[in-house]
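note to self — DONT lose this again. spent like an hour looking for the file last time. sequence + predicted structure for the chain T wanted, 458 res
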Amino acid sequence: MGKEKLMKQKSTKMISRRGFLGRSAAAMAGLTIIPSHAVSGLGHRAPGDKLNIAAVGIGGMGRNNIANVAKTENITALCDVDWSGQTLKVFDSYPAAKRYKDYRIMLDQQKDIDAVIVATSDHTHAIISMEAMRHGKHVFTQKPLTHTVYEAKALAKAAKEFKVATQMGNQGQAADGPRRLREMIWDGVIGPVREVHVWTDRPNNGLFRIYWPQGVQRPAGTAAAPDYLDWDVFVGPSPMRPYNPAYHPFKWRGWWDFGTGALGDIGCHSLDPIFRALKLKYPVSVQAVSTLVNKETYPSGSIVRYEFPARGDMPPVSLTWYDGGLRPMLIPELEPGMKMGEGGTLYVGDKGKILNDVILPSSLRNSYKAPAPSIPSSPGHEEEWILACKGGDPAGSDFEWAGPLTETVLLGNIAIRNEVKEKLGGQVMLWDPVKFSFPDMPEADQFLHCEYRKGWSL
């Protein structure tokens, strides 16, 4: 199959892993997603004009995104595969909005939609976002932007060619704290930064609970899907499997076929300020260690290390990720009562360290005078997107930014794959973002994307 067939957007023929490997570099270099007749755009709207916004996936984080945009805009359509619990409450909160279970029907039938919020399970982020952009809609997609590395690159390119306003749902980027941290690091408070450590307890929830299970096998037996759930649409592009409450609601995050694990859940939040402060984009290598991992779910804990090259006057830097309760050892600069915490970030520079937002040691903190704030505050995460939809500046985490960030996050998940773990014990995975491949471990390239179930395509 040639490159043209690979990228033909209306095709329902699926991409095989073997075929993808053979042409991933060429496909990403010459990616053509949008036919010229489809690029119409919505034009510029006056700031006072209200957008008609639809949302797909409304029972979880989506309901918060909807509430934030509903302060100023119209909610005109709501879509979810699960018509129970929180979904019904959201339906009741916006009685004028039309209701759907299948986003494809919504986009084909309802012509008054200007913009779409996508807050579904990770494995359907890309196909829904792409279809919305193909219909000329602005798109807000929850983190992580996509399920695969390839999808992240494809969405970033599509958003640019469609000329639509986009935003990924990593709302922390709109806060002032990361902006002040960025200014201090650029001011040289701790000198050149050569190491960063970032950790989360996810999927754990404290010492004795979990948010969702990882490191488990597929449940035995089958169960009938409840009447309120469209299981076929939920499974979407992933291989079909029998319904089981082990997958939905919310527990989908720990399964390879549906979620992106702890790294996908938190990485686009906690790595974002690091990428901005240290001007990072693509790593040159990635390696990982983990607890036992299988082909069904992510491991219960992992450590992933990315190496980044020098950038301008900034030296090479190692970025190490920890999840599942794993974290760096205590640092000697900790002061009485100070803890590393269940989640946090540690910058290690030549002159000192920053633990979350605290400069260490105290002697450096007490002697340092922070520069006057220079990075403007954000009007709000969803507000950035709304303004961009109406012709304003691009949102802070638009797909041009969020695509490469998500690519790097998801490269870490490839490094913990069961299929490459044994070989990784003896070597580091080099990454070539231009050729879009692992030059020293080509067998890992198959995990840059996945084969979609028949009837589903990007």
